[in-house]
Design goal:
The protein has 86 residues and is of the alpha+beta class. The chain has 3 helices and 4 strands; from the N terminus they run ββαββαα. Strands 2-1-3-4 form a 4-stranded antiparallel β-sheet, covered by helices on one side. Strand 1 and strand 2 form a beta hairpin. The radius of gyration is 13 Å and the shape is elongated.
Length: 86
């Protein structure tokens, strides 16, 4: 039996490390407070999500996974954390 893959956390990949949290903005704020980055250092392409099988995926792939898993009701091109975690 195949276990359905789901989106479990917002994530930002930066300098080979993955930071996770509830919302991308909260992750960025924590990174900034810890002096790991400046806000301008975060590129849109480095923002994504963690899956239930512990993979980092970009917003586009995350949208497909969330739709197939029934986490969102309609397909979107780019997933935002508020769509999965209201």
């Amino acid at each position: 039996m195949n276990k359905r893959i789901t989106i479990i956390k917002a994530a930002i990949q930066h300098n080979g490390k993955i930071y996770t949290g509830y919302r991308h903005a909260l992750i960025i704020e924590k990174m900034w407070q810890e002096k790991k980055i400046g806000i301008d250092d975060i590129k849109q392409r480095s923002q994504g999500f963690m899956t239930s099988d512990n993979r980092f995926v970009d917003r586009s792939e995350a949208a497909n996974i969330a739709f197939k898993a029934g986490q969102i009701k309609s397909g979107v091109n780019s997933l935002d954390s508020y769509q999965v975690f209201p």
